[in-house]
Amino acid sequence: MVVFLGSNLMKFLAYCILVCFVTVPLVEGRVRHYKWEVKYEFKSPDCYKKLAISINGRSPGPSIIAQQGDTIIVEFKNSLLTENVAIHWHGIRQIGTPWFDGTEGVTQCPVLPGDTFVYKFVVDRPGTYLYHAHYGMQREAGLYGSIRVSLPDGESEPFSYDYDRSIILSDWYHTSTYEQAAGLSSIPFVWVGEPHSILIQGKGRFNCSTLGIEAGLCNTTNPECTPYALTVIPRKTYQLRIGSLTSLSALSFEIEGHNMTVVEADGHYVEPFVVQNLFIYSGETYSVLITANQDPSRNYWASAKVVSRNSNTSNGLAIFNYYPNHP
Ligand SMILES: [Cu+2]
Question: Which family does the entry's similarity section mention (predicted)?
């Protein structure tokens, strides 16, 4: 009897040791805790005032910045009053945590108004990822953001740069997402048409003078729609992570006078190649290297414009801003 117990105990211990070695990740990551509140607010991302969904008052929401192997905890409160929410972590594999993928109706029940939900998952691969709402048309209403996963301390990518930055491209409609959803599911079908503006990091510029009766909602002097400025130090190299979460538009992104070297696509390193403009489709991410090697006494436009469609959508513009008087 004692012998029998002893051999079972040995087997049990061996099993424990095996399980421990298999399941404990090789890289001991940190825990990154985020506390978010999701709500509707009037915003003027392209100078036209409209309801948008924000996280902690912002759209795009806060960036998640982590290192490979870290555990991300997002505790979020749904303060939308009448709508459910779920948030999908786009490109994150959710190994061992499929229930935190955030696809409403597939991997979880939606989070009800007033409720708080906690997502907890490990970012197991370095790269550029996104997050966005996965309920109704809330992504189009502004509920999205970026996820940047860098390598653990002491490891470096197969390319070099001085600073790391992220931007998200999106398209923006002035019509409400409710009106769009009703039209798309009506008989006869009502098409949403072309977006009014392209946004770079949540900012665009609509030509208010083209509006009739709604002109009062549009104000180009509103500081909310001043273009996003990416400030750079002369001669430094920037890794710029670019993601697109458009609803309809395929985009071409470029920075006046600067080449971009593509080094990563959708979380995978690529053989570096140089481009003047980057074609990017919804759901894609790219990392490019840009060296601030032009005349530092002026600034340069970054632009995102619609390709492959006949549209009169206002281009997205941002400023590639040389740090003033930097030696
Ligand atoms: Cu997605």
Answer: Belongs to the multicopper oxidase family.
1 CA from centroid of ligand 1 (Å): 58
What mean pLDDT comes out for the span 4-10? 59
What's the pLDDT at 312? 92
Report the domain count for the chain. Answer: 2
Given a contact cutoff of 8 angstroms between Cβ atoms, the answer to whether 129 and 92 are in contact is: yes
pLDDT score of 211: 86
Q: What is the mean pLDDT of residues 221-244?
A: 96
Distance 139 CA to ligand 1 centre (A): 9
Whole-angstrom CA distances from 174 to 48, 80, 180 are: 7, 19, 10
CA angle 116, 147, 317 (to 5 degrees): 110
Average pLDDT over residues 240-269: 97
Q: How confident is the model at residue 215 (pLDDT cuts 50, 70, 90)?
A: confident
Amino acid letter, residue 201: Q
Judge whether residue 221 has pLDDT over 50: yes
Q: How far is CA 221 from the centre of its chain?
A: 27
Give the span between the Cα atoms of 130 and 144, in whole angstroms.
Answer: 7
- CATH number of the domain to which 279 belongs: 2.60.40.420
Residue 93 domain-assigned? Answer: yes
Measured distance CA(224)–CA(50) in Å, rounded:
12
Which pLDDT score, from 0 to 100, does residue 1 have?
43
CA of 174 to the centre of ligand 1 (A): 22
DSSP character for 174? S
User: Which amino acid type is present at position 122?
Assistant: V
Domain containing 281 equals 170-322
Domain boundary among 91, 118, 152: 152
Q: How far is the CA of 131 from the centre of ligand 1 (A)?
A: 7
